Automatic annotation (TrEMBL):
Organism field: Daphnia pulex (Water flea)
Ranges for domain RRM: 1-77, 78-156, 166-225
GO annotations of cellular component type: nucleus; ribonucleoprotein complex
InterPro entries: Nucleotide-bd_a/b_plait_sf, RBD_domain_sf, RRM_dom
Taxonomy of the source species: Eukaryota, Metazoa, Ecdysozoa, Arthropoda, Crustacea
Keyword Endoplasmic reticulum: no
Name under which the protein is recorded: RRM domain-containing protein
Length: 225
């Protein structure tokens, strides 16, 4: 796993770095499906464990395009981000519904019993189980709870964060809404660490969980100009 890279970093920037560490079997930079930018992380499969060790030794902490210290570690991608879930559903509902699509679910990660946030992370027992579930859910024929859900690989670091959740998913926002406006709106409920805006949704990182909960209660279903 590699992360903490700028969203405008492309494969041609990444590949030479890892090629210097050993023979690459595959490399994937995870992209935002609604833009031409990356999501700031990806996965590399090497042909040997020695190459994995070399990449961690050489690249972890590397400054790449002034983005700060690049993160490189040995990690198996087995967690999916699931968005646009009806907020009335709980973890048991999610596990039951997703088990119909595929097996191998270990855990549904959410800060609350009820999914008041509208999204969660689903952890699988292997990359194969997670990849199969992602393929099935993204083929356009399967609806979960009658909704068109959002499915993508989860950043392993986000999986840890969401267990003590302070990150809000803000869906269906105008493309005209700026990060500054979103930060101003959510900042009324407490300090904001970061706003990540994509095509028609955003992630708002609150400084503490209580502020995040207050923002959800006050701003859910509110129109953002």
């Amino acid at each position: 796993f590699f992360g903490n890279v700028l969203r405008d970093v492309m494969l041609e920037d990444i590949i030479p770095l890892f090629e210097d560490c050993g023979s690459i079997w595959s490399l994937r930079l995870v992209m935002d499906p609604l833009s031409t930018l990356s999501r700031g992380f990806g996965y590399v499969n090497f042909t040997t464990m020695e190459a994995v060790a070399v990449s961690i030794d050489l690249l972890n902490g590397l400054i790449l395009k002034e983005t700060g210290a690049m993160q490189v570690n040995a990690n198996v991608p087995n967690c999916l981000y699931i968005g646009n879930i009806p907020k009335s559903k709980d973890k048991d509902d999610i596990k039951t519904e997703f088990s119909i699509v595929s097996g191998g679910i270990l855990n549904v990660i959410s800060a609350e019993t009820k999914l008041i946030w509208g999204f969660c992370l689903v952890e699988y027992d292997s990359i194969q189980s997670a990849a199969f579930a992602k393929q099935q859910l993204n083929n356009g024929t399967i609806k979960v709870f009658g909704s068109d859900i959002i499915v993508d690989w989860a950043d392993p670091n986000e999986a840890k964060k969401h267990k003590i959740i302070k990150v809000l998913h803000v869906g269906i926002i105008s493309k005209r809404s700026s990060m500054e406006r979103i930060k101003e709106l959510f900042g009324e409920h407490g300090p904001i660490q970061l706003v990540e805006k994509f095509a028609d949704y955003a992630f708002v990182h609150c400084e503490n969980r209580d502020d995040a909960a207050k923002a959800v209660e006050d701003l859910n279903d509110r129109t953002v100009d």
